[in-house]
Design brief:
This protein is about 40% helix and about 20% strand. By secondary structure, it is of the alpha/beta class. The longest helix is centred in the last third of the chain and has 23 residues.
Length: about 400
């Protein structure tokens, strides 16, 4: 079970309000507006937020005192009082992102600008509940030791991204039977918080990766898209009506969507479009299955199986996109993965080819694009979500302008 060690307060208001008791909401609205409107003045922020000039000035002064906002050079030569541009301080806060995956873990530290300051990624055959937490705690200690005193003082906490129900599904990666019970007894958040001494928030890995893609999208951000991360299995996320669809912890499990295989038999997207599916096809062809990170594999040495896998994976993903679009209006779909970028590009090409060949009824198929973050999307998104929940407004309208 995953339980967050602290609960973030949210208020989905798109404009600030001046009544007492909503200071945090107003601060988040103001900081968000400054972030998405770099160079805005006090007057601009007051107008955009709906707050009075005095309230806005007081909030900005408070944010500046906490190192979250910085002022640029005064802009002269305009009518009225000279305006001072406001900017998010890129070093205003830092967070740590941890992904525990089926075949790897990743630990990174991220500053408020989105810049990764340090990262480490380790591969394994399966996550060993007896050793992995000590390994991760050691990585966190190493990374934090490289931060400055100011960065450590501004450390907002840890975002932890994992698949849902590791214990139930760990047999899918051929882990020893006892691992299921070991993982089933662990409160992941409490364990990592105890090992690191830092507050921890848990996120489904598909949701975290999708959120990293949300942040990477240029403004105005799309109101709806489906996200597919090709890894050991198919991680996925959904943005619906301008908000990340978080579900009840399972995220948007689009990899479990039923499609048909080459023989017309029902199967799951996970079993056609994942790295696991490729490994199964290599084994069936009598070829050696490489170890370690797929990013470092010799992909040319695995032909023609790779080409065959990319085609079947592309068809499965195209069907999943069409089915998702049938129930949710999508502005686009996004494909990413743990493979080298040229391999992701080849997969994207096959998805587009198959999508174009599938029939339409009441709406055209959504366009398909490649993601921005690659293999680090889940760890990056978990770190980003910690900062978002701590400092920014939940109101999508502020991010979409």
């Amino acid at each position: 079970m995953q339980k967050n060690s602290e609960t973030a307060e949210f208020n989905p208001l798109s404009r600030g309000v001046a009544q007492s008791g909503v200071r945090i909401t107003n601060e988040r609205a103001v900081l968000t507006l400054i972030t998405v409107n770099p160079g805005a003045s006090n007057a601009d922020v007051a107008r955009l937020s709906g707050l009075g000039p005095q309230t806005t000035s007081r909030i900005i002064a408070e944010l500046e005192s906490r190192g979250l906002v910085m002022r640029g050079d005064v802009l002269r030569g305009r009518r009225g009082q000279p305006a001072t541009p406001l900017f998010l301080n890129p070093q205003g806060a830092v967070s740590i992102g941890i992904e525990i995956g089926w075949r790897h873990y990743e630990v990174l530290v991220l500053e408020m600008s989105g810049k990764t300051l340090a990262s480490v990624r380790r591969s394994y055959l399966w996550p060993d509940a007896r050793t992995i937490f000590g390994d991760i705690a050691a990585e966190v200690a190493t990374i934090t030791s490289g931060l400055t005193d100011l960065q450590r003082a501004r450390l907002a906490g840890i975002g932890l991204a994992t698949p849902s129900k590791i214990g139930r599904n760990i047999g899918l990666v051929q882990a020893p039977v006892e691992q299921a019970a070991l993982w089933g007894d662990i409160d992941l958040v409490a364990r990592i918080a105890a090992d690191t001494g830092l507050p921890v928030q848990w996120f489904n890995d598909g949701n975290a990766a999708c959120w990293a893609e949300v942040i990477a999208q240029p403004s105005p951000r799309p109101q709806g898209f489906a996200y597919f991360q090709i890894g050991t299995f198919v991680g996925a996320g959904l943005v619906a009506n301008g908000e990340l669809w978080e579900g009840n912890g399972h995220a948007a499990n689009l990899g479990s969507m039923l499609v048909s295989d080459a023989q017309g038999q029902p199967t799951f997207v996970h079993l056609l479009a994942s790295i696991t599916a490729l490994q199964d096809q290599l084994t069936a062809a009598g070829m050696t299955v490489p170890g370690g990170s797929p990013f470092n594999w010799d992909w040319a040495a695995m032909e023609p199986v790779v080409t065959q896998w990319l085609d079947s994976a592309g068809l499965a993903l195209a069907k999943a996109i069409v089915n998702t679009h049938a129930v949710l209006e999508l502005d686009k779909s996004i494909i990413d993965g743990v493979m080298p970028r040229p391999i992701v590009e080849r997969l994207l090409e096959r998805v587009r080819v198959h999508l174009a060949a599938l029939p339409t009824l009441t709406a055209d198929h959504p366009p398909v694009e490649m993601g921005h973050l690659g293999a680090s999307a889940a760890a990056n998104g978990a770190a980003q979500l910690v900062l978002f929940q701590r400092f920014f407004s939940r109101a999508w309208k502020l991010f979409s302008t």
